[in-house]
Amino acid sequence: FIVTGASTYLGVAASQARQELWDSVETERRRMVELAGQRGLWEEVLESCELALTHDPMDSTWFRLERVRALEALQRSDDAREEIQQLASEEIQGTHKGTVLLAQGDQQLLVEDTPETLELIRQARKIGLSEADDAYAESLLSEKTTDAIAALKRCLALRPYDQKASRQLGFYQICLGRHDEAQTRADIAAQMFPNDPSFVVLRALSM
Protein backbone atom coordinates (compact mmCIF):
# COMPACT_ATOMS: atom_id res chain seq x y z
CA PHE A 1 0.00 0.00 0.00
CA ILE A 2 2.84 2.36 0.90
CA VAL A 3 4.65 1.57 -2.36
CA THR A 4 1.48 2.12 -4.38
CA GLY A 5 0.79 5.41 -2.61
CA ALA A 6 4.33 6.63 -3.21
CA SER A 7 4.13 5.64 -6.86
CA THR A 8 0.86 7.53 -7.27
CA TYR A 9 2.32 10.60 -5.56
CA LEU A 10 5.39 10.55 -7.81
CA GLY A 11 3.18 10.17 -10.87
CA VAL A 12 1.07 13.18 -9.89
CA ALA A 13 4.18 15.22 -9.08
CA ALA A 14 5.71 14.36 -12.46
CA SER A 15 2.47 15.31 -14.25
CA GLN A 16 2.35 18.65 -12.42
CA ALA A 17 6.00 19.31 -13.27
CA ARG A 18 5.33 18.64 -16.97
CA GLN A 19 2.31 20.96 -16.92
CA GLU A 20 4.33 23.71 -15.26
CA LEU A 21 7.02 23.28 -17.90
CA TRP A 22 4.49 23.55 -20.75
CA ASP A 23 2.88 26.59 -19.10
CA SER A 24 6.30 28.20 -18.85
CA VAL A 25 7.06 27.47 -22.50
CA GLU A 26 3.69 28.90 -23.60
CA THR A 27 4.21 32.04 -21.51
CA GLU A 28 7.61 32.55 -23.09
CA ARG A 29 6.19 32.09 -26.59
CA ARG A 30 3.50 34.66 -25.87
CA ARG A 31 6.15 37.08 -24.68
CA MET A 32 8.16 36.54 -27.88
CA VAL A 33 5.07 37.19 -30.01
CA GLU A 34 4.24 40.40 -28.13
CA LEU A 35 7.81 41.73 -28.32
CA ALA A 36 8.08 40.96 -32.04
CA GLY A 37 4.76 42.73 -32.67
CA GLN A 38 5.87 45.79 -30.74
CA ARG A 39 8.97 45.96 -32.97
CA GLY A 40 7.01 45.47 -36.17
CA LEU A 41 8.61 42.09 -36.92
CA TRP A 42 5.46 40.56 -38.36
CA GLU A 43 7.07 37.63 -40.14
CA GLU A 44 8.56 36.66 -36.79
CA VAL A 45 5.16 37.03 -35.12
CA LEU A 46 3.59 34.77 -37.73
CA GLU A 47 6.35 32.18 -37.43
CA SER A 48 6.16 32.15 -33.62
CA CYS A 49 2.37 31.77 -33.65
CA GLU A 50 2.44 28.93 -36.14
CA LEU A 51 5.17 27.17 -34.17
CA ALA A 52 3.17 27.53 -30.96
CA LEU A 53 0.01 26.19 -32.62
CA THR A 54 1.78 23.02 -33.74
CA HIS A 55 2.27 22.18 -30.04
CA ASP A 56 -1.44 22.52 -29.15
CA PRO A 57 -1.13 25.35 -26.60
CA MET A 58 -3.62 25.74 -23.78
CA ASP A 59 -4.75 29.12 -25.19
CA SER A 60 -4.68 28.41 -28.91
CA THR A 61 -7.23 31.17 -29.63
CA TRP A 62 -4.80 33.83 -28.39
CA PHE A 63 -2.14 32.67 -30.85
CA ARG A 64 -4.68 32.46 -33.68
CA LEU A 65 -5.83 36.03 -33.05
CA GLU A 66 -2.22 37.24 -33.02
CA ARG A 67 -1.72 35.29 -36.22
CA VAL A 68 -4.60 37.27 -37.75
CA ARG A 69 -2.93 40.51 -36.67
CA ALA A 70 0.32 39.45 -38.32
CA LEU A 71 -1.40 38.35 -41.52
CA GLU A 72 -3.16 41.71 -41.77
CA ALA A 73 0.11 43.56 -41.18
CA LEU A 74 1.71 41.53 -43.97
CA GLN A 75 -1.21 42.37 -46.31
CA ARG A 76 -2.31 38.73 -46.46
CA SER A 77 -5.93 39.79 -46.17
CA ASP A 78 -7.48 36.64 -47.62
CA ASP A 79 -5.64 34.44 -45.12
CA ALA A 80 -6.63 36.73 -42.26
CA ARG A 81 -10.26 36.71 -43.38
CA GLU A 82 -10.27 32.91 -43.59
CA GLU A 83 -8.88 32.59 -40.05
CA ILE A 84 -11.47 35.03 -38.67
CA GLN A 85 -14.29 33.13 -40.39
CA GLN A 86 -13.00 29.87 -38.95
CA LEU A 87 -12.80 31.34 -35.45
CA ALA A 88 -16.30 32.81 -35.79
CA SER A 89 -17.68 29.38 -36.74
CA GLU A 90 -16.34 27.80 -33.57
CA GLU A 91 -17.78 27.90 -30.07
CA ILE A 92 -15.21 30.25 -28.56
CA GLN A 93 -15.69 30.65 -24.83
CA GLY A 94 -14.15 32.83 -22.15
CA THR A 95 -12.26 36.07 -22.62
CA HIS A 96 -11.70 35.64 -26.37
CA LYS A 97 -15.34 35.44 -27.43
CA GLY A 98 -15.71 39.23 -27.56
CA THR A 99 -12.41 39.61 -29.41
CA VAL A 100 -13.52 37.16 -32.09
CA LEU A 101 -16.84 38.98 -32.51
CA LEU A 102 -15.00 42.28 -32.85
CA ALA A 103 -12.67 40.83 -35.49
CA GLN A 104 -15.68 39.44 -37.35
CA GLY A 105 -17.54 42.75 -37.22
CA ASP A 106 -14.48 44.75 -38.21
CA GLN A 107 -13.92 42.45 -41.18
CA GLN A 108 -17.53 42.77 -42.32
CA LEU A 109 -17.37 46.57 -42.12
CA LEU A 110 -14.91 46.45 -45.01
CA VAL A 111 -17.71 45.01 -47.14
CA GLU A 112 -20.87 46.62 -45.78
CA ASP A 113 -21.84 48.99 -43.00
CA THR A 114 -25.11 47.45 -41.83
CA PRO A 115 -26.99 47.46 -38.51
CA GLU A 116 -26.23 43.73 -38.20
CA THR A 117 -22.50 44.34 -38.52
CA LEU A 118 -22.54 47.14 -35.96
CA GLU A 119 -24.52 44.88 -33.62
CA LEU A 120 -21.68 42.35 -33.70
CA ILE A 121 -19.35 45.07 -32.43
CA ARG A 122 -21.82 46.11 -29.73
CA GLN A 123 -22.13 42.48 -28.63
CA ALA A 124 -18.35 42.23 -28.44
CA ARG A 125 -18.26 45.18 -26.06
CA LYS A 126 -21.04 43.72 -23.92
CA ILE A 127 -19.26 40.38 -23.63
CA GLY A 128 -16.01 42.09 -22.72
CA LEU A 129 -12.84 43.22 -24.46
CA SER A 130 -9.38 44.32 -23.49
CA GLU A 131 -9.04 48.07 -22.94
CA ALA A 132 -7.32 48.52 -26.30
CA ASP A 133 -9.90 46.47 -28.19
CA ASP A 134 -12.76 48.24 -26.43
CA ALA A 135 -11.36 51.62 -27.46
CA TYR A 136 -11.01 50.39 -31.04
CA ALA A 137 -14.59 49.05 -31.00
CA GLU A 138 -15.79 52.41 -29.68
CA SER A 139 -14.13 54.13 -32.63
CA LEU A 140 -16.01 51.89 -35.06
CA LEU A 141 -19.31 52.76 -33.41
CA SER A 142 -18.65 56.50 -33.06
CA GLU A 143 -20.94 58.77 -35.06
CA LYS A 144 -18.61 61.78 -34.82
CA THR A 145 -15.13 61.83 -36.33
CA THR A 146 -13.74 63.64 -33.28
CA ASP A 147 -15.08 60.90 -31.00
CA ALA A 148 -13.57 58.22 -33.24
CA ILE A 149 -10.20 60.00 -33.14
CA ALA A 150 -10.27 60.19 -29.35
CA ALA A 151 -11.07 56.47 -29.11
CA LEU A 152 -8.33 55.52 -31.57
CA LYS A 153 -5.78 57.56 -29.63
CA ARG A 154 -6.75 55.66 -26.48
CA CYS A 155 -6.35 52.39 -28.35
CA LEU A 156 -2.90 53.32 -29.62
CA ALA A 157 -1.78 54.55 -26.20
CA LEU A 158 -2.51 51.03 -24.94
CA ARG A 159 -1.36 49.15 -28.07
CA PRO A 160 0.98 51.28 -30.20
CA TYR A 161 1.45 48.53 -32.82
CA ASP A 162 -2.21 48.38 -33.85
CA GLN A 163 -2.16 48.64 -37.62
CA LYS A 164 -5.85 49.29 -38.27
CA ALA A 165 -6.11 51.88 -35.52
CA SER A 166 -3.07 53.69 -36.94
CA ARG A 167 -4.50 53.66 -40.44
CA GLN A 168 -7.94 54.88 -39.43
CA LEU A 169 -6.58 57.57 -37.14
CA GLY A 170 -4.41 58.96 -39.91
CA PHE A 171 -7.24 59.17 -42.42
CA TYR A 172 -9.62 60.72 -39.88
CA GLN A 173 -6.97 63.35 -39.15
CA ILE A 174 -6.75 64.09 -42.88
CA CYS A 175 -10.53 64.51 -42.99
CA LEU A 176 -10.32 67.16 -40.27
CA GLY A 177 -7.38 68.93 -41.91
CA ARG A 178 -4.88 67.87 -39.25
CA HIS A 179 -2.18 67.20 -41.81
CA ASP A 180 0.82 67.50 -39.49
CA GLU A 181 -0.66 64.94 -37.10
CA ALA A 182 -1.53 62.64 -40.00
CA GLN A 183 1.99 62.85 -41.40
CA THR A 184 3.50 62.01 -38.02
CA ARG A 185 1.16 59.04 -37.74
CA ALA A 186 2.06 57.90 -41.26
CA ASP A 187 5.81 58.17 -40.59
CA ILE A 188 5.56 56.06 -37.43
CA ALA A 189 3.22 53.48 -38.93
CA ALA A 190 5.20 53.11 -42.17
CA GLN A 191 8.17 51.85 -40.16
CA MET A 192 6.05 49.28 -38.33
CA PHE A 193 3.99 48.20 -41.34
CA PRO A 194 6.24 48.51 -44.41
CA ASN A 195 4.01 46.12 -46.36
CA ASP A 196 0.93 48.33 -45.99
CA PRO A 197 0.71 50.80 -48.93
CA SER A 198 -2.05 52.79 -47.23
CA PHE A 199 0.53 54.58 -45.08
CA VAL A 200 2.39 55.70 -48.22
CA VAL A 201 -0.93 57.11 -49.47
CA LEU A 202 -1.56 58.71 -46.10
CA ARG A 203 1.85 60.35 -46.12
CA ALA A 204 1.24 61.74 -49.62
CA LEU A 205 -2.20 63.12 -48.64
CA SER A 206 -0.78 64.82 -45.56
CA MET A 207 1.85 66.82 -47.44
How many helices? The count is 11
Described by strand count, sense and barrel closure, the largest sheet is: none
Would you report the number of β strands? 0
Radius of gyration: 20 Å
Query: Helix and strand succession?
Result: HHHHHHHHHHH
**Helix fraction bin:** over 70%
Write down the overall geometry.
Answer: globular
Low-confidence stretches: none
Which structural class matches the secondary elements?
mainly alpha
SS strand fraction? under 5%
Instruction: Report the mean per-residue pLDDT as an integer.
Output: 88
Termini gap = 82 Å
Keywords for this structure?
11 helices; 207 residues; mainly alpha
